[in-house]
Design a protein that fits this description.
alpha+beta, eight-stranded antiparallel beta sheet, globular
């Protein structure tokens, strides 16, 4: 399987922790650990493959975007991620300070300089198929996930839109 990208959305328990040095130090350690798998040669010219961002609308929400170079590394990760994209994380603008995450019924044809995206392929994974067979997963709509800059055009509105500001990236 080619490289994939995971989106992890969580809610912070402590309201003021995003500003604490202990918390940002922990995020740095997490990013360093993730990078040890995906960028083991420490090539600084390589674009970021992992980033933490917090929601502009709801500062209690923290988004982690992370890339996996192989299915084996993906299988070893915890299963609490938001979406699984058929997309190489290196194509995402994780060096930007502000990003918009959108869930749509179809791709937004905006150009790679504004929005990069991919289809949520989780329902097609072994775990998704097993949950469907066991009756634990209802009808999951096909979802295109776009990540990029704020787009103010006459496009059909996204199903859901989240605005995030970077906390750390590696």
């Amino acid at each position: 399987m080619p490289p994939i990208t995971k989106l992890w959305l969580s809610t912070l328990k402590a309201k003021d922790c995003i500003e604490s040095s202990e918390f940002t130090s922990l995020l740095s350690q997490i990013l360093t650990h993730c990078s040890s798998y995906t960028n083991s040669q420490s090539k600084p010219e390589q674009p970021p493959m992992h980033a933490f961002l917090h929601s502009v609308e709801n500062p209690d929400q923290l988004l982690m975007i992370t890339g996996c170079p192989s299915q084996e590394i993906n299988n070893a990760a915890d299963g609490t991620w938001l979406k699984l994209l058929d997309l190489d994380v290196c194509s995402l603008p994780l060096a930007d300070d502000d990003l918009v995450l959108q869930f749509r019924d179809a791709p937004a044809n905006l150009g790679a300089d504004q929005v990069v995206g991919g289809w949520d392929v989780w329902p097609e994974t072994e775990q998704g198929i097993n949950m469907t067979k066991a009756g634990k997963l209802g009808d999951v709509p096909k979802t295109w996930v776009g990540i990029g800059k704020e787009v103010k055009t006459g496009l059909t509105p996204a199903r859901e839109t989240f605005h995030f500001r970077k906390v750390k990236a590696a």
